[in-house]
Amino acid sequence: MKSSPAGDMPAKEFREEGHRLVEWLADYFQWSLGNPVLSRVRPGTIREGLPSIAPEEGEPFERILSDFERVLVPGLTQWNHPGYFAYFPCGFSTPGALADFLSTAVSQQAMLWRTSPAATELEELVLAWLRRALGLPEGFEGVIYDTASTAVVHALATARHEKAPEVRTRGLAGRGGPAFRVYGSEHAHSSVDKAVITLGLGHENLRRIPVDAEYRMRPDLLAGAIEEDRRAGHEPLAVVATVGTTSVTSVDPVPAIAEVCAGQRLWLHVDAAYAGAAGILPECLWAIEGMERADSFVVNPHKWMFTPFDLSAFYCRKMDLLRAAFGLTPEYLKTSEVSDARNLMDTGFQLGRRFRALKLWVVMRYFGLEGIRARLREHMRLARLFADWVDREPGFERVAPVPFSVVCFRAVPSGAGDGDAVNQFNERLLRVLNDTGEVFLSHTSLGGRYVIRFAVGNIRTTETEVRRTWDLLRELAGSSGASRSSPAGPRPEQPQE
Ligand code: PLP
């Protein structure tokens, strides 16, 4: 259909294409089950499959969708496949996807209250729901950012504004004085590194504090590092504690860290991007213990609360300070609304804001807190089941506790020792496992050991995919059923001593 010289797609066509799209997606969710989780395309394939210049004439939507299916679908790594166990799975649910479509279709941009009262006030409401579900005090005001990476930049910038408000005007160079220091454990996420780089604090001013045998920050060593830095003339600024570290999902001892921060007057930001969601389970309250003493914390419903990427819930008990750090209203954005109307543009460096709250609201209403809790519990049960199989299998070992839904393990072929050969074996094992196309897992490194991570978090995952992963692993590692040929071709070679 040739597009008319002005105006949008005709209403009749929108209705037809919208129906077609939903039908297509419903089929796709079925079709995807039998297709590779990790995309198999080679770099450049997608670019080469499509014209390098934009069409002069409009094209029918049907043809565009057909090209999407033909060229782009093979390049989709299927984050919403039930066999997806890599990194932290992406929050996904079909109600969440429908809400995202709705949000885009009603086209809201919530920079000012008046540019979207609905988006502004729903954001406030839904963040209060989540905060209450976590049992945290009302003193925490929330704002939705795209990611936890953005949240930590805002947390550290606000901490800096509290200590040195003149930086806003004069910059760090204008301030002079000692270098600010930020602390996180050896396992804190790389977004903390990027935040100190972004804020001009200097990468070398992020101090990595050693962890205990269960990968949790050592508060005694944190206190020691702060003292040492003060003696050396630095200015300790903030600590980032992690609830659910990226590699092993360990939980830093937040109450003890909060004690250190209070004594030293340091900002405490808690990165609960992944495991914060577990705080809505009464049996996991231990994980968020002490979070009420933080200055700020972040939880990512797009990681483990069935909310499609992206939606990161940031809470701060000094949001007015954050507003002072970032607030700036050019003439054209001045409005006459006074009262208690809040403008979301004041809560960060970003002006425009998507209507993200809608999808979290829909997800929380559609599943209900009990429905979300049931799904989180099921994911934790599946992870424990998998961990139990690993523990009972002589050719494998688990290398970290399993507090939530991630299992870190590796194959230990008999007589292989503990060197590079075992690492290479596991690397190959992971590659051939992922090459089967049935599942997708990722890895980490712990104390020089190459470790495979099995992360349950996808709403579509059931015990069937968990068992299948384990069967494939045993088969491919050759520790059981090795005589059977693997669907992926050759098994990884046994390490040479
Ligand atoms: N914090 C932790 C503990 C993470 O594991 C991750 C990503 O996996 C992040 C922060 C960054 O998350 P985002 O992609 O929302 O920036």
Notable characteristics:
497 residues; alpha/beta; 7-stranded mixed β-sheet; 15 helices; binds pyridoxal-5'-phosphate
Describe this structure in words.
With 497 residues, this protein is α/β, with parallel strands linked by helices. It has a domain at 109-354: Aspartate Aminotransferase, domain 2 (3-Layer(aba) Sandwich). 41% of the residues lie in helices and 12% in strands. The chain has helices at 11-31, 45-48, 61-72, 94-105, 117-133, 148-163, 167-175, 190-198, 219-231, 254-264, 301-304, 319-326, 357-392, 420-435, 463-477; strands spanning 84-85, 141-145, 180-185, 206-209, 235-242, 267-271, 296-299, 312-316, 396-398, 406-411, 440-446, 449-455. The strands form two sheets. A seven-stranded mixed beta sheet has the order 2-8-7-6-5-3-4, sandwiched between helices. A five-stranded mixed beta sheet has the order 1-11-12-10-9. Helix 9 runs parallel beside helix 10 (254-264). The radius of gyration is 25 Å and the shape is globular. It starts with 10 loop residues before the first helix and ends in a 20-residue tail after the last helix. The model is unreliable at 480-490 (pLDDT under 50). Residues 88, 147-149, 189, 191, 242, 244-246, 271, 273-274, 300, 312 line the site of pyridoxal-5'-phosphate (PLP).
Helix content: 40-55%
CATH homologous superfamily label of the domain at 109-354: Type I PLP-dependent aspartate aminotransferase-like (Major domain)
As residue ranges, the low-confidence spans are 480-490
* CATH fold-level name of the domain at 109-354: Aspartate Aminotransferase, domain 2
Query: Which percent band covers the strand fraction?
Result: 5-15%
Number of helices: 15
CATH architecture of the domain at 109-354: 3-Layer(aba) Sandwich
What integer is the average pLDDT? 94
- Computed Rg: 25 Å
- The structural class is alpha/beta
Q: What does the overall shape look like?
A: globular
Quote the distance from N terminus to C terminus: 67 Å
CATH class of the domain at 109-354: Alpha Beta
Secondary-structure element order, N to C: HHHEHHEHHEHEHEHEEHEHHEEHEEH
User: What small molecules does the structure contain?
Assistant: pyridoxal-5'-phosphate
Question: What is the strand arrangement across the widest sheet?
Answer: 2-8-7-6-5-3-4
Number of strands: 12
Biggest pleated sheet: 7 strands, mixed
